[in-house]
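Chapter summary example.
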Amino acid sequence: MPDRNYVILAGDVGGTKSNLAIFKTIGGSLSLERNERFPSASYPGLNAIIREFLAKEKRPVLAACFGVPGPVKHGRAKPTNLSWGVDAADISKEFEIPYVSILNDLAANAYGISELNPDDFAVIQEGAPDAEGNRCIVSPGTGLGEAGLYWDGKRYGVWACEGGHTDFGPRNDLEVALLEHLIKQYGHVSYERIASGMGIENIYKFLRDTGRGKELPAAVHEMKTKDPNMVISKYADSGECSMCVQTIEIFLGCLGAEAGNMALKAMATGGVYLGGGIPAKMLSHIKSVAFTHAFNDKGRLSGLMQSMPIKVILNDSAALMGAARYALDGAKAASA
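The structure predicted for these 336 residues follows.
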């Protein structure tokens, strides 16, 4: 390894914003020194963002890693909802960084789990006291990201996936009607269309447009100037809008069911982690019976589901920390 004056560059790239951070290593641990957020669409590419961010950094960057939404192949990725792509080789060449990696954003989040402290989590379901084994992460935000962590007996390895784009499976007549309604709009209806930020609004409009609920004038007025999801959540919390309450209940049921699906596929007896922007902001809702019932309601395997711990990630730097850990470990392995 080079001298200890180096730093690690980590990034969490999204369609709306990109977060970049500088980490210093202390022993085997990572210490966040500074981070900054950039409006992604305002830049012609990630290199431009890095250029601006590193203008304040005088120390050499040993390694860098960036979490990007969408599939990654040969160090390249095309972030969802952005016009530009990301190329590890281009970044390495322009900024003279010896080790540059690109990860799926949920893989970066998954690597970050082991870097967090106990108070960075909110427990939704305790699970078995001796819980161990594979883990998974399900992150509803703008979209729905998923990843798995396999346990090899000594450490966790991470695998990325695009499970949020799998076909939505309705569990009752109301969800069947929701699916039929959305098929007319989208054709293919994935879990992301329902168990994410866009899903909350989709469910609300379904109830409104099919005459299953009545809008509250105050809520309609606020939605003209504010994020509809936040307005729906606000009036669901207060109980003033019965349609908002029903929207959140359907959303929680679908999210819980899909989190349970992912947990079964990963055999996540070591824990199920909820990331993304929504669970932490809707913590009181996630703790409700609607979510845990849907998660555990897996017929003959309901007992297994109840043994799985469920935790919400409260630290929004998890992806940055995971990317930094991956970058550092990769640099160590390459120089060994």
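To summarize the output: The first helix runs from residue 46 to 54.
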